[in-house]
Amino acid sequence: MGPHRLTLAMRAKLLPLAGLYLVQGLPYGLQSGLLPLLMRARGLSLARVGLTKGLYAPWLFKLVWAPLVDRRGYPRAWLALSTAALGLVCALLAALPPAPSGQAGLPATAVGLLLLLNLGAAVQDVALDTLAMQLLEPAELGPGNTVQVVAYKLGSALAGGGLLAVLPNLSWPLLFLLLAATYWLAAALAWAAPALQQLPRPQSSEHTPRHLQDLLAVPGTLWTAGFVLTYKLGEQGASSLFPLLLLDHGASASELGLWSGLGTVACSIAGSSLGGALLTRHWKLLPLLRLVLRLRLGGLACQTALLFYLDTPGASLSPGTVLRGVALLSLCLQHFLGGLVTTTTFTVMMHCSQLAPRALQATHYSLMATLELLGKLLSGTLAGVLADGLGPNPCFGVFLVLSALPLLDLDPSPSTLG
Question: 41, 99, 179, 264: least surrounded by Cβ within 10 Å?
């Protein structure tokens, strides 16, 4: 089989995966971007809007149903059914009667359906990641994880405000009808795509997993778990605080909104795409990860130095100043490097999970993904508390130390991960 035919075979896998990962990003964008806007426009308090973060709870319990995906039925069937179920939930949300005027929050029925939406999305996430692990060859993990990260971010951006920009008069019923139709089309794609039909039948195994003991026995698991839990601690804290600190130093909210919204998403996608391209060109996984972590650490050091300089007399972020341009460039550069780091790290995660027996792969990858999410939530949640307690500049010093830790983790990395 020649290289051209190999490329065509890989494209036949990546195109349906791209469509499915794009759809997978819709619930996150909906609830982190668009839903708060719609709720605030209806007069809900900021505190009530903030409580919608609790709707993400089902994502933290993926390990509960991941063993079912591993051992019961086909990942493709789980994927098609969970995606179709998401379409049904969206249709029910579209059919809800308008909330009474003056109501202080979302109706209980809407909250229940949104929780079901997150539950279905989390099951879909497990099934799609399992299918990708079984579908992709080791040499295809770089492009595959690029498709995963980029398509997910595009889906999130589309549901997080892209629809509202295209359809400024978008109503609640129309929004969820559009989402329902999208999910049903994606369910048909998951079931009918030729590349997804060629997966081997799951083989019954007499081996009964002993939960954590068997997961930790997979080569490289302990190291990978520690790495994914800590690799975003410094970056996530800094990226959540840096735009707010620029606002405190005189940058305009509208300009920051543009750059920290559209600009950073575009740079993050570009970084993720570059990561996949480098892995496709046979860059070794761990040396590439070491390089991008060093670049990220250098970029964070520049941000920290910039914040210290802004506290000196005469420093200003006024329009037209070089310092303003440097600050905005730094914001975008860190998201570009963050995209590079994310794609490379997700490739490490999937490579490690592929070393597990097939009956454990979904559970293993869900463990890695849950730890990665916990690390990001921990840093993003505590960043503001840390800044209030230590002050912004010392807080960024802590972020620098946290960003250096993953580089130290690479020294004892297992040879099985490349």
Answer: 41
180 token code pair: 């329902």
Which two tokens mark 333?
Answer: 């550069």
The predicted pLDDT at position 300 comes to 94
Is residue 117 within 8 A of residue 27, CB to CB? The reply is: yes
- Interior CA angle at 417 toward 376 and 4, to 5°? 105
pLDDT tens digit sequence for 206-247: 444 456 788 888 999 999 999 999 999 899 888 878 887 887
Token pair belonging to 223: 């190291």
Model confidence pLDDT, tens digit, residues 43-58? 665 456 656 667 777 8
How many whole angstroms separate alpha carbon 231 and alpha carbon 237? 11
Burial of 9 (0-12, 13-18, 19+ CB in 10 A): middle
Chain CA centroid to CA 140, Å: 20
352 contact partners, CB below 8 Å, separation of at least 6: 218, 219, 220, 221, 224, 364, 368, 416, 417
**For residues 125-164, b (16+ Cβ closer than 10 Å) or e, as one string?**
bbbbbbbbbbbbeeebbbbbbbbbbbbbbbbbbbbbbbbb
User: What is the DSSP secondary structure assignment for residue 272, as one 8-state letter?
Assistant: H
Tokens of 297: 């650490």
pTM: 0.76
Q: Which helix (H) or strand (E) holds 164?
A: helix 163-166
Measured CA distances, 403 to 26, 272, 376, 400, 408 (Å): 30, 19, 13, 5, 10
Tokens at residue 247, please? 């606002």
Number of C-alpha atoms within 13 angstroms, CB side, residue 257? Answer: 5
φ, ψ dihedrals at 171, nearest 5°: -100, 165
414/219 Cα distance (integer angstroms): 8
Neighbours of 215 (CB within 10 A): 21
Q: How far apart are CA 19 and CA 56, in angstroms?
A: 23
The C-alpha angle 245, 247, 253, rounded to 5 degrees, equals: 145
User: Contact at 8 Å (CB) between 151 and 19?
Assistant: yes
Angle, vertex CA 174, rays to CA 170 and CA 180, nearest 5: 130
* Residue bearing tokens 């070089």: 322
CA distance 335 to 238: 11
Which amino acid makes up residue 393? N
Q: Give residue 1's pLDDT band: very low, low, confident or very high (50, 70, 90).
A: very low
Rg (CA), the chain: 22
